[in-house]
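Mods, move this if it's the wrong board.
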Amino acid sequence: RSLPPPRPRPPQPLSKGHPPRTCLAEPRLHDPDVLIMDEPPDGLDPNQKHEVRNLIREMGKTKAVIFSTHILEEVDAACTRAIIIDRGRIVANGTPEELRDLSDLAGAVTLSAPQADEAKLRALPEVARVEHLESHWLRVYPRDKHAPVALAQSIMDLTRREGWQVHSLHTEAGQLDEVFRRITLPDTVKK
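Not the wrong board. Structure tokens:
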């Protein structure tokens, strides 16, 4: 005697990570010219995020992929262009690098040098201001953000001349989250 066919089971809810992956399968089947997604890596573990980012970059070679996100590391990881929208208006539009250049931190040099003399650093022609961070850490802001190499070179030359021991010295990249906060905060908070 034969068994009756299995009864269809109602669909089960997907785990948090399955909807984003499922949503990426459909566009691959239909191959649209434009793909719009909302928070594609939300709920994924780091390995799954890596795969989704690779897939988005790959699809972006042949189609327009537009996605919204509040996770700015996703912009760096997967986007060639970013638009910041505040209260329905576009307030910034550019490559992630162009937007990072809007950061106050862009082009600054951060160094750890116990003997460093802030006044001598301020006297350098490339320096706009010097900020004491903590202990022996200083951040030196450039007059021209687009010349960070000149600033770093000038600081290194000064440390050699003065005989300061430098534990660390690096040029800062701008931070997208700082740019986002600064341009989207209400005017009353910006002060």
